[in-house]
Amino acid sequence: MKGVMIVGISEQVLPIDLYQRLGEQYGTPLYVYDMAVIEQRVADLRQCLHPNVRLFYSMKANPNPSVVRAIYRHGVYSEICSPLELEIALSAGIVPAHILYLGPGKSAAELERLVALGVRYLIVESIQEIALVQKIAGKRGMVAEVGLRINPRETVRGARLKMGGAARQFGIDEDQLPEVLAAARAMSCVRVVGLHGYLGTRILQADTIAANVRCMLEAADRLLAGGLSELRYVGVGGGFGIPYHSGESRLDLEAVALRTRPLFDSFLRRYPDVEVLAESGRFLVAEAGSYLVRVRYTKRSQGVEFAIADGGVHQFAAAGGAGSLVKRNYPIEALVCGRGEQRMYHISGPLCSPDDLIGRGVELPVLQPGDLLAVRQAGAYGLTFSPVLFLSHPLPREVMLANGQAVLVRDIDEYGLPAVREL
Ligand SMILES: Cc1ncc(COP(=O)(O)O)c(C=O)c1O
User: Fold this and answer.
1) Is 379's C-beta closer than 6 angstroms to any atom of ligand 1?
2) Average of per-residue pLDDT across 192-213
3) Domain layout of the chain by residue ranges
4) Atom of ligand 1 nearest to the CA of 237
5) Is residue 281 lining ligand 1, measured as CB closer than 6 Å?
6) pLDDT score at 2
7) Using one digit for the tens of pLDDT, what is the confidence trace for 87-132?
8) Where are the beta strands (DSSP E) in 281-356?
9) So what CATH class is 35-285?
């Protein structure tokens, strides 16, 4: 039998009865989120970060409006990267003063809306973008405040995906900053008041997080020493990872606290009026989510057992390996009782593509048509990172478990701008 055996790494197995009921009631495929887990992760990250660090939720991880609003209600601001994310945030009750907006390719219309709304942390990523903001603000007869996304000189190792410290489309290289700042100073309708950096994501080592923080705070120090006259905020990024695969261990948050607190303390002692920002998507929501699929058929092909399910990579591309160099399984549970014998399965979806595998060589109880499977760690980069239109299968519903109740937080016909629901 081909394939690797995957040992489940989720801390708790799912309550089978509850998830079976949800599968019956809402149909499968189905995304289920657990608000208690999100609340726990918000509290964990808060406790680990310096009390004066302002935390932002990166909506790209899961832009479901009910998720967004629930997190905001815990005092976490929003980090946003697109016009629809902005509309979702506004419909979820997030005020422009609590929005950090970035992205290397914003349109003129997007910038006009951001300037008109007065988005507080408006991050610009090139000299041409600064000039566009100058033009927009000039037309409105106002001065727009912006933060510069910087690409620091240093590279920090240890992130799965590097967004800075190398040749990147994001931000402005640190070496070019003196020139860019001088050009910005000559513009009368734009004022640089912030700095932002984001060096990488999926980080599981405390040392790497601390190195990122140091890198950004030192860059801010250098710029303040080198002529940046005003600084209201500096964003140090985030990249807090979670374990997905066997062999990966949890990020040690106590170690993160121990290594980063002195850095924040020292910076904030010297610059007490500067607000320090951090952002996180995956860490806050990934472990709260499961993607439920139902087995439709089982078959054997050339010695390999397949379970063919009703959901696949069109709705959870990351579970099939998209975005990773090496395809490794997400934790998968069979929500069945009392079956002793185990077998290794490739779990496919309904697509006409051999790549439609959400698990390869997964050891599970012997499966039958009708069995429910749960792909865990599905709360982040699930639907948002998937080619949902591929083959035009029906879209999945999303349900949130909160306060002992299941709330449908996105119905099949609510793609685009879904309504916000009370939890
Ligand atoms: C600028 C920026 N901020 C935040 C994030 C969110 O990262 P994560 O979900 O790993 O916390 C990303 C992810 O790519 C990013 O590029």
Assistant:
1) no
2) 93
3) 16-33+287-410, 35-285
4) 3
5) yes
6) 33
7) 999 999 999 999 999 999 999 999 999 999 999 999 999 999 999 9
8) 289-301, 304-309, 332-334, 342-348
9) alpha beta
